Amino acid sequence: MDMGIAGRTALVCAASKGLGRGCAEALAAEGVNLVIVARTKETLDATAAEIRAKYGVDVKALACDITTPEGHAAALAACPAPDILVNNAGGPPPGDFRDFTRDDWIKALDANMLTPIELIKLTIDGMIDRGFGRIVNITSSSVKAPIDVLGLSNGARSGLTGFVAGVARRIAATGVTINNLLPGTFDTDRIADTLAAQAKAQNISLEEARARRAKALPAGRFGTPDEFGRACAFLCSVHAGYITGQNWLIDGGAYPGTY
């Protein structure tokens, strides 16, 4: 299927690896030019070079902290008129809510709620003026089914979800859509770190920890960044103009509810 977005420009956050890179690659495969953002310059530059060589699109790499005002300004200077915005940031650490400080909460809110909102604010009017825009926020399956040890993530990402629910409908007639992608267990560095900690705590091998986690999923496996990216590319396509304000759960069937 031709997604109809060749020649468009996308700003993709936290795109040097993992789910952000999956989204960047899927968009590049559709002929979308990219500005990709992450903190680590070496990894980001390598990713940009690989995507550029593989897909033949223009890829600009910007190493910055996208959660800061300076990062916001730098991203918009590098990509002043994006047609597509993919918001993404690493999740806050797990823990007991009793141990979270005010600073912990502010950091979580800055990364997983306030930064996406600010980037939406900075880009949405241009999209509306041009009559086309796609905004996709990578959040978490915890928005659908809260995870007890991820209180910071549950709170911050749920705040973003509520914000999107209102704004997406307010601008639905303009040609601009806003949707959220809710990943479950994907084969990324984040799950690798979690599994390593679990393996150590349970005195089992990393391979056994991976096998146990995969077996617990109805799909019997972890998701891949590639398939996550393709879902993102579809939401960014011309075919998804009637989909807005939605939370797409991509978790291999892990969520047990009917709705």
Automatic annotation (TrEMBL):
SUPFAM superfamilies: NAD(P)-binding Rossmann-fold domains
Pfam family, one: adh_short_C2
UniProt family annotation: Belongs to the short-chain dehydrogenases/reductases (SDR) family.
Protein name: 3-oxoacyl-[acyl-carrier protein] reductase
Organism expressing this protein natively: Caballeronia arationis
